Amino acid sequence: MQPGAPGELSRVVKPESKAPPKFTDADVKFMQSMIGHHAQALEMVALRPGRSTSEDMRLLMLRIEVSQTDEIKLMQRWLEDRSQTVPGPHAMHDHGATLMPGMLTPEDMAKLSAAKGAEFERLFLEYMIKHHEGALAMVKELFNSPGAAQEAEVFGFASDIEADQLIEIRRMRGMLAAGR
After folding, report:
1. Angle between helices 117-143 and 152-177 (to 10 degrees)
2. Where are the domains positioned within the chain?
3. Helix, strand or coil for residue 129?
4. Which site from 10, 108, 153, 172 is most exposed, i.e. has the minimal number of CB atoms within 10 Å?
5. How far is the CA of 4 from the CAs of 7, 13, 27, in angstroms?
């Protein structure tokens, strides 16, 4: 049912008259790129066992793991529903892949992998802040692209990333200030 204008009756809208969702190349690029971006965050949190026993760090990393795993599934489904290419989670490692904002280099990942205890925790927080700031830059680029993020699901998802990662950055900066 589609409500009528003031003083007019509602009308029945047939399913076949419903327009397909509108999306742009920038929307597709954002979703495809963010899959790889999130995958690297998952690689970072997977390093915790044997490197950190802090309960605060465990809870932070669990939050990142759960949220970003769910978001990868959402992005994959969104792309599939629109018959777009769904990159593998490790496409960022492909030869010739460009480094997205905030992504750690192989050297950064090696340094994080080699660290333990307080050094691992400090590096993790510094690198994840950088990583989250990169995601915020990707959201800003999406929002600044003409016609992009007009579809409700893309706009809502990008807005959620922005809000969640700003909160996590504040939390991680607080943890760093407290001596992590």
Report:
1. 150
2. 23-177
3. helix
4. 10
5. 7, 11, 32
pLDDT score at 95:
45
60-73, pLDDT tens digit by residue? 999 999 999 999 99
Half-sphere exposure of 138 (CA within 13 A, CB side): 29
Determine whether 38 is exposed, middle or buried from the number of CB atoms within 10 Å of its CB (0-12, 13-18, 19+): buried
Q: What gap in Å lies between CA 74 and CA 18, rounded to an integer? A: 23
Report whether 34 contacts 154 (CB < 8 A). Answer: no
Mean pLDDT score across all residues of the chain: 90
Compute the average pLDDT of residues 70-87: 96
Say which residue, 7 or 138, is predicted with more confidence: 138
Query: What token pair was written down for 33?
Result: 């790129």
Residue 162 and residue 149 in contact, taking contact as beta carbons nearer than 8 Å:
no
- Rounded to the nearest 10°, the torsion over CA 163, 164, 170, 174 is 160
What letter represents residue 98's amino acid? Answer: T
**Residue for token pair 């998952």:** 42
CATH homologous superfamily of 23-177: Ferritin, core subunit, four-helix bundle (1.20.1260.10)
Report the SS3 class of residue 2: strand
Which pLDDT value is given to residue 9? 74
